[in-house]
Specification:
Elements lengths: L14 E4 L2 H11 L4 E8 L9 E7 L4 E5 L9 H4 L5 E4 L2 H12 L6 E3 H8 L10 H9 L23 H12 L1 H14 L3 H20 L2 E2 L1 H26 L23 H11 L9 H6 L3 H18 L1 H5 L12 E3 L9 E3 L16 E2 L4 E8 L2 H10 L2 H9 L3 H10 L8 H16 L4 H8 L3 H14 L1 H17 L1 E3 L5 E3 L10 H39 L3 E7 L2 E7 L3 H19 L7 E6 L5
Length: 604
């Protein structure tokens, strides 16, 4: 849409300032007849618990109503905003939902989020971010004034009159959403993305509730774990320094006669000197992948050191600083479309980084009087691959309830299932199952399995001779992705790729990347969609049954709830049933399995 098609004058928007309850009630009678409204809020901060709401804006296509939240009881908006028959258009709906829920107990219903819509229709494209500033610029050819701090919102006291500039800003933020909506909705329909959009918009409420609730953490236990990690890291540091000391001529001592560390284990140049010049290992870098390939005890110790250091620096006291001063809980930011495949991302802090086997996980606990219900899909990405490929051997394993990795090992190595060793054949089969699904070749599998490239290639041949339809599907979907320029999940979510011109000097490399992603994205994306359905179904079931329960975390194919102890068993049953119902939305022929546990700790 060209700039000339943009009908709203943002320098002089049509708006009305509402500062009396009498006028608010009159306006509500007017706008409740609309089929579609734009909604926004302005406040003094981004934290729903700490912000002071200044305005709530309600917009029709031709007029904005800027309601002064300091002078009017915005709870009176509850009936309007919870009316499921009116579509509400918002930018970053999750934020406004959380603010209005925390401040006024308003749960906005029937939302269209322009930020999520933009991510849906541009997944994989390089179109900048999905802020209102970027969307308005890309779609409408206009530049919004988003120098938020210059509007001096924090100077608006309890009764002070807003400036004309502040009111125009607030009005513009809702009026601009209509032309953006028109373009996005048309594009969503054209690309066949309605089901994806419905899924993402229905998910806003469960995700917002998850963020509002937050997770409870045992601070003393966390610090105790942290101290243990630091002790182990320090002991390992000393061991490494003692091992490499003879390789260096000069041994230095500090003022107290203690030997100084030979090198800084966090310095890449010093580590490269150690690995290449001192140990002769020919390491191109010090990354974890390289260290894991180096057959040397020092490299193994450095890898172990890196693990301790990563946990300590990524979390440590930093995570405890995220405990909210109002709630006493940690409230991460869950990003619904955190990857082009549709997968979630998590930040501030990123709880997805905590390894499953880590003792740090067990520090996340149910508050006294509550329980945690943790649910985890079983081998969900491999089940999705079975759904796509319809391979008879895969189907046989799932329909018979056999462990897929064990059965794969039995077929590949030609040995009875009872003879498959968990740490040898099964582990190799597991590596191959996941590796081929992610488009890995013989070289990559050889590194992972610790075998020669020829051996890895031989294992791949055995695998594909066993699962012939898997190979056929992987080859077909890779070619189709290059041909069409996008991949698609079982729900219909798309991820676009820029297919290079054959004259591009990087053509082969870029095509290989697209083919790899073309294999993986439908699997990873369909799995993510399944978890999203599960979150929606669980959230709806909790509300329907009136259970004292809240979603608190999701990590890929895992869902965690905190539940009042009296409702724990009901919640466990509900979660298992809804996880399986969500699975059947995606998998029509492959059975869905999930493990559900009730415990005091996050222990999956």
């Amino acid at each position: 849409m060209a700039e000339t098609d943009f009908k709203i004058d943002l320098n002089n928007p049509n708006f009305e300032y509402i500062d009396s309850e009498k006028r608010l009630l009159e306006v509500l009678e007017i706008v409740e007849k609309e089929k579609m409204l734009a909604v926004d809020s302005e406040g003094t901060g981004l934290d729903p618990y700490l912000t002071r709401v200044l305005f709530v804006q309600i917009g029709t296509r031709d007029k904005a109503y800027v309601i002064d939240a300091r002078k009017v009881d915005c709870q009176k908006l509850k009936g309007l905003l919870e009316n499921k028959n009116i579509l509400k258009i918002l930018q970053n709906a999750k934020f406004d939902y959380e603010v209005l829920k925390v401040k006024y107990d308003i749960e906005i219903q029937n939302m269209f989020d322009t930020m999520l819509a933009e991510r849906i229709v541009t997944a994989g494209m390089e179109r900048g971010n999905s802020s209102l500033l970027a969307i308005a610029n890309n779609r409408l050819g206009i530049t919004l004034d988003k120098d938020y701090e210059s509007y001096e919102w924090d100077k608006l006291g309890e009764k002070g009159n807003p400036t004309e500039r502040q009111l125009k800003y607030a009005a513009g933020d809702v009026l601009i959403l209509f032309p953006i909506f028109d373009q996005q909705y048309a594009q969503i329909k054209k690309e066949g993305l309605l089901e994806t959009a419905k899924l993402e918009f229905r998910l806003i409420q469960p995700v917002a509730d998850m963020e509002i609730t937050g997770a409870y953490i045992d601070v003393s236990k966390w610090r105790e774990n942290l101290r243990e990690q630091e002790i182990k890291r320090n002991e390992l540091t000393k061991k490494i320094q003692d091992e490499i000391r003879p390789l260096y001529k000069n041994t230095q001592f500090d003022l107290f006669g203690e030997q100084v560390d030979v090198i800084n284990l966090n310095s890449q140049p010093q580590l490269l000197e150690l690995l290449n010049d001192k140990l002769g290992l020919d390491a191109p870098s010090t990354g974890e992948e390289i260290l894991s390939k180096l057959n040397h005890p020092i490299a193994k110790m450095l890898l172990e050191y890196r693990g301790y250091q990563k946990m300590i620096s990524a979390f440590g006291e930093n995570l405890l600083s995220k405990i909210h001063k109002v709630t006493g809980r940690i409230h991460p930011d869950f990003i619904q479309i955190g990857a082009d495949s549709g997968r979630f991302a998590c930040s501030n802090p990123n709880l997805q980084q905590i390894p499953r086997e880590s003792t740090f996980r067990s520090c996340f606990m149910a508050f006294p009087g509550n329980k945690l219900v943790t649910a985890d899909y079983s081998q969900i990405e491999l089940r999705v691959m079975g759904e796509y490929s319809q391979d008879p051997e895969l189907m046989k394993a799932y329909l018979s309830g056999q462990d897929l990795h064990t059965m794969t090992a039995s077929l590949m190595y030609g040995i009875p299932i009872t003879k498959v060793r968990k740490t040898v054949e099964r582990q190799a089969a597991k590596t191959i199952n996941f590796g081929l699904m992610y488009g890995r070749g013989a070289n990559s599998l050889a590194d992972q399995l610790g075998v020669s490239v020829d051996e890895a290639r031989n294992l791949m041949d055995k695998y594909f001779n066993t699962f012939k339809k898997v190979k056929k599907w992987l080859d077909t979907v890779a070619k189709e992705t290059v041909k069409k320029g996008y991949s698609v999940t079982l729900v219909g979510r798309k991820r676009w790729f820029r297919v290079p011109d054959p004259s591009d000097p990087m053509y082969d490399r870029l095509i290989s990347h697209i083919e790899r992603q073309g294999k993986n994205t439908p699997i990873q994306g369909s799995s993510a969609d399944m978890t999203k359905f599960a979150l929606i179904y669980i959230y709806d079931r909790i509300k329907k049954e009136g259970l004292k329960a809240h979603l608190i975390l999701t990590v890929h194919d895992e869902v965690v709830l905190e539940v009042a102890e009296a409702d724990a068993e009901k919640a466990r049953v509900a979660v298992e049933e809804e996880m399986k119902r969500a699975g059947k939305q995606i998998l029509k022929t492959v059975p869905v399995e999930c493990a559900v546990e009730v415990a005091d700790l996050w222990q999956h």
